[in-house]
Amino acid sequence: MASAQEKATACCLPARDAAGARRAIAVAGKVSMAAGGGERVVSAAGGGAVMEDIAAAVQPTTAKASSKGIPIMTRAQRFHPLDPLSAAEIAVAVATVRAAGKSPEERDSMRFVEAVLLEPEKNVVALADAYFFPPFQPSLLPRTKGSPVIPSRLPPRRAKLVVYNRRSNETTIWIVELSEVHAATRGGHHRGKVISSEVVPDVQPAMDAMEYAECEATVKNYPPFIESMKKRGVDDMELVMVDAWCAGYYSEADAPSRRLARPLIFCLTESDSPMENGYARPVEGIHVVVDMQNSVVIEFEDRKFVPLPPPDHLRNYTPGETRGGVDRSDLKPLIIDQPEGPSFRINGYFVEWQKWNFRIGFTPKEGLVIYSVAYVDGSRGRRPIAHRLSFVEMVVPYGDPSEPHYRKNAFDAGEDGLGKNAHSLKKGCDCLGYIKYFDAHFTNFTGHVETIENCVCLHEEDHGILWKHQDWRTGLAEVRRSRRLTVSFICTVANYEYGFYWHFYQDGKIEAEIKLTGILSLGALMPGETRKYGTTIAPSLYAPVHQHFFIARMDMAVDCKPNEAHNQVVEVNVKIENAGTHNVHNNAFYAEEKILKSELQAMRDCDPSSARHWIVRNTRAVNRTGQPTGYRLVPGSNCLPFALPEAKFLRRAGFLKHNLWVTPYKSDEKFPGGEFPNQNPRLHEGLPTWVQKDRPLEETDIVLWYVFGLTHIPRLEDWPVMPVERIGFMLMVRTTF
Fold first, then answer.
1. Which residues lie closer than 8 Å to 608 by C-beta, 6 or more apart?
2. How far apart are CA 328 and CA 283, in angstroms?
3. What is the pLDDT of residues 378-433, one digit of tens each?
4. Cβ neighbours of residue 578 under 8 Å, at least 6 residues apart?
5. Catalytic residues
6. The pTM is what?
């Protein structure tokens, strides 16, 4: 991911308004400089884009005294320990692993699923933030007698690579150490140092985009499949779409000893339209299993002849082809203008805005990661809130028991990768105003580095009123508008789009929001047939009921410096006072708190009837009235799985059984279904197993796992493209200031 390669795009207004938008914007906002390259800020006030390059100042590697007499290393090295891997670092890591192969055959069979930063321990981050990088806060480190001892350099960065060996069907985790020289690559001649390599037995890593294409080609070239499509009136294989879905785990036949895909088949109505909606014609009745290791069909059966649904005239969503066939022409341009530039400041991946500061990261699996979240509070200085925030998994189970729909329960992070499927916002941007873009770098399956330009969007938004009051006696009123800083990215996994957003507000709250859109995953019906497990949206076409679940992992640090463990979790429920002497008017109710003392006690569900919420509280810091400081997790709309407990997908997704889980921090506990959910045969691996240790949670480095979801009963109005549905939660200040 690169912060130094932001591009100007005209993507947020129709073309006819772009010129006017350009005329309306005269000043580009400036951003702080980052070592190692210039930065560009884009103003996309509806399509006009203004770009200002700012030259980077490369500071010498020397110590200087701060205003308080504390030495600060101005630029000891280019990369902060939490910066995403650069394209050069990924290239070096891949070359290092490939060179370590024992034979030409082994090297040729290496497929690179993931290359990601191996995040350092929190004390390394504290050292970097104290003396090497913003926020330059020496108080993050424990006090020592005499002058602080400042090392001249930080430990070398490390990369973690997940490598699939296509020849042996083995998955190996490699750890590679990188140095500043390695990071520069200087023509690609330098290699890193292999720290370790470990073969992980009985797993299959996430599927790659190259495998999607291979699976489609394999099926479309399989003669029995061609014959089955001819029976359905399709002779042109260019009309056929094959979506490779991971097999899941239903029986020993799905064991990870083979790398499997169970694809879904669709058929375009027209082949000469690049925006033709192929999902409008699902192909039912054909059973296919593909061995992805060898790119061969290993199971094929034309089990039931279901005619293709007739072409639906509402199937497409491009201009001129939506309902009614006429685009709106009465909507006037809306220009977002910030004539003095944005209020945020950027230094590399470090963001400052309205007393907030944090770092931006990005991984192939999770996508956007927010690190080191803190709020600057006057004389109390920089107050930490969270060390790391991200969405670590999502699961989409379908409620139709018929084939193939009962197998549709995608783990979109663990099986596909939210980050690897992210959009370049050059191809359609949902942000307005002055925009700071960040690029993202990945390795593809063959080890080449790919870049998603303009992958992450950071911008300010007006959010209505923050507060208002009018004194009825004097008629005088005061009002303040609310502004928020939004960091986001959008990904497409097959038919669905998901937008992931973190909003930071001026009143100290953080909102996590996910926007769902895209195209429904459909099924075909026999003429005249209906199904109670879905909604008929066109002749012989229906959309099955399903649910979307998201898992947010929040490594909290409320008023805690790195390596301090002073947090606890408190559950709050509203109780009704019993009738009697304490409730003579029958109106009394109160909030009751209960400390969640261990992991098994902290397996909790939402309860709107009691206004249930949870507080992460610091046991040693107090506010101005002497109460412990804290942040509360406030649920939004939510649900639990409707599937019975014996449902096969819940073997791998036991973490969906509760809305809240709490664990003490452990660096290798990052993904609730384990690191490799694809074809995972192990029962309840990950979060449900970890909490069985029932570790104590009082005065601990707390990690919250919040599971939230929505139940989608499709509507006709969701076709051909679904209007955005929103779901999320809040982290709100609770007796902190």
1. 635
2. 34
3. 888 899 999 999 999 999 999 999 999 999 999 999 999 999 999 999 877 788 88
4. none
5. 412, 496
6. 0.90
